[in-house]
UniProtKB/TrEMBL annotation:
Reaction catalyzed: CO + a quinone + H2O = a quinol + CO2
GO molecular function, one term: iron ion binding
Residue intervals of the Aldehyde oxidase/xanthine dehydrogenase a/b hammerhead domain: 33-142
Name of the top EC class for this enzyme: oxidoreductase
Protein name per its UniProtKB record: Carbon monoxide dehydrogenase large chain
Natural source organism: Emcibacter nanhaiensis
Amino acid sequence: MNDQTPVSAQEREEKLEGIGCKRKRVEDVRFTQGKGNYVDDVKLPGMLFGDFYRSPYAHARIKNINKDSALAVPGVVAVVTAEDLIPLNLHYMPTLAGDVQAVLAHEKVLFQNQEVAFIIAKDRYAAADGVEALEVEYEELEPLVDPFKSMEPDAPLLREDIKDKKEGAHGPRVHHNHIFTWTAGDKDATEDAFSKADVVVKEYLAHPRVHPCPLETCCSVANMDKITGQLTLWGTFQAPHVVRTVASLIANIPEHKIRVIAPDIGGGFGNKVGVYPGYVMSVVGTIVAGAPVKWVEDRIENLTTTAFARDYHITAELAATKDGKILGMRSHVLADHGAFDACADPTKFPAGLYHVCTGSYDIPSAFIQVDGVYTNKAPGGVAYRCSFRVTEAVYTIERIIDVLAQKLDMDPADIRKKNFVQPEQFPYTSATGWEYDSGDYPTAMAKAMDAVGYDQLRQEQAQKLADFKAGKSRQLMGIGISFFTEIVGAGPSKNCDILGIGMFDSCEIRVHPTGAAIARLGTKSQGQGHETTYAQILATETGIPSDMITIEEGDTDTAPYGLGTYGSRSTPVAGAACARAGRKIKQKAQLIASHLLEVHHDDLEWNVDGFQVKGNPEKRKSMKELAWAAYNNVPEGMEMGLEAVDYYDPPNFTYPYGAYFCVVDIDVDTGESKIRRFYALDDCGTRINPMIIEGQIHGGLTEAFAVAMGQLIHYDEYGNVQGGSLMDFFLPTAVETPHWETDYTEVPSPHHPIGAKGVGESPHVGGVPAFSNAVNDAFKKLGGVHTHMPHTSANIWAYAQSLGL
Ligand code: PCD
Ligand SMILES: [Cu+]
């Protein structure tokens, strides 16, 4: 094996398509041709179909279930209810938050559309007919919809199953609808800061219930091979290994007898982190029916029963000096978790990472309290394109700092600059104990303000306002700023675990004799482009061109254990494992090179894609040659082959950040708004693939736009869920979506092997407050202080009316 054609280092470098290259997404070849392989594409011989009968009531006692009429439907094979699950001890399943959730409602239903019975039939239509035919008698109970009433003394008792439990997963329970009370920060120091401050602001900021609504709904196919005792479970899983472990624990099947496969996934956005009754019932179904069982949610089921996001009722307070230096922050949150606490957060943090809410500012003291309560609503509480409650945290600080600026009559950009954590303060420890790894906020802010022409925008706004006041126009203009700091890459196992499993991640790489390779990881792409970008990291590290490296994720029989993809953790954690596994390959290759070139390995140096003798670059061995030698000519005593595994437990989170500017025009008479301009500067450290990053930003901003301007899962006073279909739930298309301008700075993470930070969530986390601040900014000189999301035309119009405009 010889490298025939002499090529320059630069040409060889380009051929690698490594870190920093705008490499085209390799997965798109199949996606754009409709050749993806999704769960619903799994079709097995003799496969049956399951469908849920769901509760029409939000709160009711189940008096009787008559299976006969459903069983009489042609094609229906079985009807499973909680009574059938009790002997198997499967009528409740553990949630990620340390609660239990009913797999099928037992005695009571606790939210509308809750799973009551699972109908298994020969096809999807017969299953649906069986659902229609099932007869269930209820006795209606008083629904509890308003979380502010959850803990009133005479509030209805929701969870009869745990009514005597005084100790919850996160401390004592003080009321039958109380889940937890959790605090962070220093209460006394914060109170002290508030008592000494010149100014204090306080505002109630609601972050309404929304839903990630991925294109593909949740689904699974389970197949139990009775001969081998092997269970195979295909599903829409963002964390397949965790599903395997949980399945093993709850179904009491040895873990090696379970194979979990997450094939292509049509968007996750947090919706596919949790474990749902549908997954469990497909497994029960295959065991009961002795045939494979498929379960596929429809859109309404997805929006109304699988994990919602937010529903945080936030009170925020800032204390400051009269020239705008912030001294302290307080926040209280009432968290509506619905009927079961099925929140997806690291086990120790029932409110996720909400206590990062001091944001990008050097705030000396802070105190945070979150109370979680039950209501008659669907369970959940997932990230939805944000690292564990960080959207809520960033919304809190970015909105309240604007309120403070308004009270002090300061410019929102100035007050931010005045309070920034300064570059020389990194690593910076926040008042709630987070250690920010790196950043240069003033530089990012200056670049952004320059790019948008901030001062001119403010002048134009002043002119518009003058015209409005003079009665010459009915248009207002708002400028929204958000300078966010994210916390992603869960996480250091000292802080983060899921059900006791530390949140490390992994990469396993095997280099074949011809110098091609396969790498497998514990994460799972849902569209992010991991097949493209992990190969780029490995290419730079090993000198094997990206297009010679296959990336595989999602099959627990082949991939090393990992905690999955959410919270923008793949790059900070598995991406680091990739780099380190690549370095292990290189280390072994160096020893082989020293053997082949007959020089000491210290006399070798790495150059793009191979080792060369220091001072004599003509004498070199490429990685391709070294791979071949690994299978036939290794140094005495060395094992053959070229493989490496890395399990990476990060020393810290990474802290990407950004400066976002939004310009909105509002028609006061109709409440209609138009996002005229949106500029997003992101710093995610070392950029692996700038084109993928741009795509991530576009997607995340679009979701932020959706949340800020229109999305809402609303419940009426009876607990009927509204906004449960795409007729009502706002999913922006190309028609509504504004144009996005993207930009960047690049401050690498000091502790990540390649300096990369996550980026997928940033645009959402930073985007939501930028939109909301823009809308609020339009009204702040007309008596407005804060109006709640979603900023629909109707809401904006009503707000303008309330201000007498
Ligand atoms: N520096 C850097 C960073 C990053 N990157 C890229 O970018 C991406 C992303 O990343 P990240 O940030 O790390 O992240 P991940 O982990 O991978 O992912 C996750 C995210 O991701 C995002 N994005 C997306 N996309 C798509 N397409 N789809 C989807 O689904 C999704 N989702 C969303 C979400 S929501 Mo959660 O779950 O809520 O928590 S979280 C999330 C990838 O590909 C990577 O590689 C680069 O390049 N560079
Ligand atoms: Cu979140």
